Amino acid sequence: MGLDGFTPGAGDLALGVETFTRITTPLNVLAGNLSCGETTWPGGRVVQRGGLNVGIVGVVGADEAAGTLGACAVSDPVAAAKAAAASLGEVDLLIALHTGGAGLSAKLAEAVPGLDFVLDGKVGASFPEPRPLAGGQVFELGAGGQGKKLGVLSLELVEGATAWDGAVATGELERRITLAKKRVAEAGRRHRGSLRGRAPARPRRD
Predict the structure, then answer these.
(1) Strand, helix or coil for residue 3
(2) How far, in Å, CA of 72 to CA of 21, rounded?
(3) Residue 137: how many CB atoms within 10 A of its CB?
(4) CA–CA separation, 189 vs 186, rounded Å?
(5) How far is the C-alpha of 97 from the C-alpha of 43, rounded, in Å?
(6) pLDDT digits (tens, 9 = 90+) for 173-205
(7) Of the residues 13, 88, 135, 142, which has the maximum number of CB atoms within 10 A of its CB?
């Protein structure tokens, strides 16, 4: 499928270290705080997309390796994310992937300098729009669980802007909702009008 970053969760690690490693070898696994014996994974990478240097860091939730029965160990995800982000150098956009739930999203938003977006793979909920964290400086994304949904984040870079603002997108969404409600109401009125215009059926006489 061509993933720029993939951070495993408990279900992935439950496959067993050998199977998990074999399956994910073609993928860009990012799990800076995960070790399975002598096997470790990078904590971050930089990709070029749309003329931007996009930094991606990945950490595993603290309890995600419990099902490996000691075959894997997980270190502090916040410290690992900070170290991974620092190793990337200066980037235009910084995204954190993790499988630690909403609580870890908030901690990363506060602790990782320059972080823009957090993608939580464990929250199990899909957000119709990004949720603000750290006073609106960082936004959390969620596309549901078990690969049942696909989320798309559309960004517009404005010269001179110093923070992300979802107001424009929210306004457009509200405009579409209002228009849809108006169309439904008009269709309902037309339907009721057609019912009032029909004459009642008269019984036939033989």
Answers:
(1) coil
(2) 12
(3) 15
(4) 5
(5) 10
(6) 677 788 888 888 888 777 666 656 555 555 555
(7) 13
